[in-house]
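Before surveying the methods themselves, it helps to consider a single example record, giving the amino acid sequence and C-alpha cells:
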Amino acid sequence: MKAFSGLTVNLLEEMHTSFVHSIKSIVSPLSFNAYKGVMGRVAVIGGSRDYTGAPFYAAEGALKFGADLSFIYCSNEAATPIKCYSPELMVSPFYDDSLFGRPASHSDSGTITSAIETAVQTVVNSFPRSHVLVIGPGLGRNENALAAVAEMIKIGREQEKLMVIDADGLWLLSQYPSLVRGYSRCILTPNKAEFDRLVDSLEKELQDSTWDNAEDLRTALLTDLRSPLPETQTRAVSLALGGVTVVRKGEFDLVTNGGDVFKLLYRGSPRRCGGQGDILAGCLGVAFYWASKNTNAAEEALRNLRDASDYVEKVEVPSSLTLEDLSSVYPDLDENFAVSMTKSVTATGGLGPSGFVRKTNHSRIRDGAILSTLLALSVVKQASVLAFKQHGRSMTSPDVLKMVGPAFSLIVDEGNE
C-alpha cells in the first residue's frame, strides 16, 4: 500500500529531541516489583443503547497505552455487547434504558429521581477503584443519564478525581459550563462541532449574565471568544472555563490551559474514521494519571518545552487577558482557585503578581495536563499513521487501536535513547 503523499511513517523523524524528552518525562516506568493497578486504573463513564463502540475504544485504548485496568459504566442494554467486545474490560451498568427512556410525566418523577440517585451512587461508590474518569464516550443525550453524570462530576470534583471529558460529556458541559469551571484536574477534548458548541454556550452565558462586576474584562473575553484566530479563541474558551485544559482537535491540534497555547505541527493520517477521538480520550486518561504522579518532572519539562521544539510551537496570542483576571469575571470561581492563580505563569510567560516562589500543586497539575495531552496526541497520531500505511482508505478505528502499542514504543521506548 503506497503511503499518503507527504505522510511521514515514523513520527520520530520529525520530532525535536527536547520534545521527545519532555513528553517522556511523565511516563511511569515499568518495574518487576510493581503490582496490578499501579500503572493506572481508568473508569470510562459512557455507553448507551445506541452507542457501544465509543466506550470500548476509550477503555481498550487506555489498556493499549499502558493502563493496568479499565472499567466501563454504561446503560444496561449496552453492557452485554461491550462485554462481548473484550474479556479485558470490567463493565457495569448504572442505569436502566427502559426506565430512563420513558417520556417525562408527573407520575414518574419520584421513580426517576430515585433511579438517578441510585445510578449516581452506583458509580460514585466505585470511584476509589479508579485513578481517572473518562466521561462521555457513547453517553448519548438521555436527559436522565446526563443528570446523573452531572452529579458524578460534582462529586468527582469534591473528591479531586482526574477527569477527561469528551463527546456527549462536552454536550453536557455546553449546557452547564460551571460544572468544571476552575477545576484544574480536568481536560476537555472537543472536535470542531463540540468546540463551536462550547463557544456558543460561553458567549450566551456572558451575554445573559446579570453580574455587575468586571464589565471591561467580560467584553474582552467575549471579543476573544469571537476571534477569527483559532489560538486566541481556544485560549478564551479555557479562560471562560476557569483555566481548564482544552484540546482543540483538528488538522493541527491546539492545547492550552488559559496560559500558553501549544500547536502540534504534525497532521497524523488523512483518514478520519469514527472512534479515533475515543481512543485518544482513553490514552489521555492514562497519561494524565502518570503526569499527576510526576508533577515536578512535568513542571520542568513544560518549562523546557516552551524554549525550543520543531514539533510543537508555542503560539503568541494577541490578548491582554490572563488567568489572574478570572476571579473578577466569574463569581462562581471559588476562593482557593483565585488564590492559587496568583502563583501561576501568565499568558506572556511572566510571573504572577505575587512573584514566583514555587508553584502550588494546583498549578503543577495544570502543567501535567498540558504535557500528558501532548504525549497522548503524539502516540495516537503515530498510531493513525501506522494504521493508514497498512490499510489506506479502508482504515478503521480497530486498526488504529492495534497500533497504539507500537506507536508508544516508537516514541517513548525507542525515541532518543
Q: What stands out?
A: The CA atoms of residues 25 and 297 lie 6 Å apart. The mean pLDDT is 86.
